[in-house]
Each structure stands twice: as C-alpha cells, then as structure tokens.
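Batch manifest line 347
LIGAND: NAP
JOB: complex structure
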Amino acid sequence: MVNNFKYLGFSEPMALAMVEALKVNPYPNPRVGALLIDEQGNVKAAANHKQKGSNHAEINIFEQVQVEETDILYVTLEPCFHSDTSPSCATEIINQGVKNIVIGDIDLDIRTNGRSVSLLKDNNISVQIESNANNILNPYYENTHKKLKDIHYLLKIGMSKNDYITNDASDSRYITNEISLSIVHYLRATADCIVIGKNTLLNDDPKLNVRIPGINNIDHNPEPIIMWGGSTENIESAMKKYPTFTFLSSMPSRENNTYCDTSSLSDVEEYFLERKFRNIFIEGGKGILGSFLRDHKIDSIYEFKSNLNIENGIHIGHNYRAEIDKNYHMNNKYQLLDNLLTTYTRN
Ligand SMILES: NC(=O)c1ccc[n+]([C@@H]2O[C@H](COP(=O)([O-])OP(=O)(O)OC[C@H]3O[C@@H](n4cnc5c(N)ncnc54)[C@H](OP(=O)(O)O)[C@@H]3O)[C@@H](O)[C@H]2O)c1
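JOB STATUS: finished
ARTIFACT:
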C-alpha cells in the first residue's frame, strides 16, 4: 500500500498507525492509531481509538494478539498514564510484556505529559519518539493543551515556483505533483471541515472529499463549506449541483443555505464552534485565504511548491509573503520529489 506520510519523516509503521488513526473521529478525544509489528517487520495487528469511552488503541491491539518480546508497538500518541477515565495504557503495556515501543508524540494532557515515557523506561522498555504525529492528526488537541485556543485553522496552498496559485495555460487545476496531492488528502482527513470560496467552487468544480489510494474505509469525511458571501447570483444552481455542500451566505431569505455573515470571520468561527468543528482546513482561493490571514486566524500553513514557473493566472500576492515574514516561523521543509513542502506556524 502506498503511504506517503513517510515523506513527512515518519517511519513506515508509524505512517501506517497514522492512517489507522485517520479512519475514525473520536472527538472530543484525539485520533490515535497503533500497530504491532514482529521481528521481521510484519504487521501483527492494527487498531485505533473509536470513540470516547471505548478502548484506547493499544488495548484494542492486546485484544487481538499476544505480544512477543521481540515485537515493536507503534502508537501515534504517548500512552495514557492516568487511570481515571479508562485503564492506564502505560500500565497495561508493561503488564502485556511489551519490550519496545515507538511513540508518535508526547501527550500534552497534564495527566500524562511525559510520565508514561518515564514509567516505561523505568520498566526497562525501549522507548523511541518520532515527533509531530499528533500535531498532524489532532492539531486542535495540541492547541488546547498548549492553552492557545480550542480551534485550529490550517491553510493549504499549492503554488508555482513564482507564487502563482492558478495556471490559465493549463486544463488541469492541479499545480503540484501526486505526492503533494496525496499529502493534501491526509491533511483533509484530519479536518472537520474544508473551507473554500465561491469562485473556487465555480472555477474548479472540486469534490472536497478524502481520496487516499488503498484506503477505502474512512468513515469520516470532512464537511465541505462554501463561503458564498452576499450575492444571489448563481447560488440556486450551485446548491442544486452540490447538494451535500454547506453554503454560508448572508442571504437570510434563501432556503437550504446557512445564514452567516461571511464578511465577519468571528461569526464564521462561531458557526464552526456551534457545529463542533475544531480542525478547520482552509483551501482557498486567494480571497478566502487572504481574509483568514488578515484576521490572524491561520495557525499553520502547508505550502506546496512546484519547480515550474507560471506565466498567466492568479498570483498569490505580495501580502502573503509579508504576512508570513511578520507573523510566522518556518517549521520544516520536505522534498516531495520535484515539489517542496514548507510548513509554517504562527508566532
Ligand atoms: N493553488 C491553490 O492552492 C488553490 C486553492 C484554492 C483555490 N485556488 C484557485 O483560486 C481561484 C479563486 O480565487 P479567488 O480569490 O478568485 O476566489 P475565492 O477565494 O475562491 O472566493 C472569493 C469569493 O468568496 C466570497 N467570500 C465570502 N466570504 C468571504 C470572505 N470572508 N473573504 C473573501 N471572500 C469571501 C466573495 O464573494 P462575493 O464577492 O460575492 O462576496 C469572494 O469574491 C480559483 O480559480 C482556484 O483555482 C487555488
């Protein structure tokens, strides 16, 4: 199975555990996936945490198979230390005889926050940590535990080497390569909703769903949200053409669309929070991303760049770079064949 999480620096088994995590949405708990592999690297069991109150991913592994000393357990998030709401996974890991564990991220929940790692090490278990898995799978959870805010906005942007986001000379609406597109789909799978503007809907005819090759049992698709604005033109036909999309429009008299003054992003945020949307995926176009950047809403940016220049189309605009230079810092750069992914976080 193709799994392009490896391009973001994750080992193959962790990448598989991350895909397990993406198959469900156990909100308000974080998505967590786990994988047990044997000495030869064969997968013995894969599991996730399905919903609040149900088994954690590690326990679902132990219910499937017996652990051998040479096995390695991969978990996307540090096992829980506490036993107030469910049995402590760290204690269960020790009891089950696990000798090697690889963890995708430290759990910032103050009841755990590194304590399970210490406990496992104290019990002679080899512990390795691959950073950032939870940050990708559950950014709002990281925000909450860093006491930032209970919502996270991720901006994805695809552009040419010279910063164009559309190409008038091409019939394809894609600017970036297949690896970039597949990573966009992983990121979409972590989102509660995907937000685009009216023009992007009308120009691109997008599906706004999660399409990951080799994985067909994702039972949670993010909700497509169209920020339409106040115009009545074309809205009826657009709503007919895309009956499963949510149209945010400030036309109160219309049927089926959701009333929301999209010129006020605090009203839009209120709508997201009412719907319990916490991982917000902003896909553009230029008008929409410009508004969210200007209002200081965007927490992280995933910028996918091709190695080609575009002559005619929409340029992202110089305010975009100025905004990044002023309010963001670069986290990572990943070479995705001939594309470059740069990630930024708000200061
Ligand atoms: N390369 C990429 O990553 C990428 C991603 C997405 C889109 N695109 C491209 O971007 C192009 C469209 O960009 P665009 O700038 O023309 O349009 P857009 O951002 O898709 O939509 C802008 C329109 O959305 C409405 N809107 C509602 N609330 C808004 C708000 N708070 N702020 C701004 N607009 C709001 C406005 O309609 P009213 O004026 O009627 O109020 C506005 O004209 C498409 O051709 C698409 O291919 C590229």
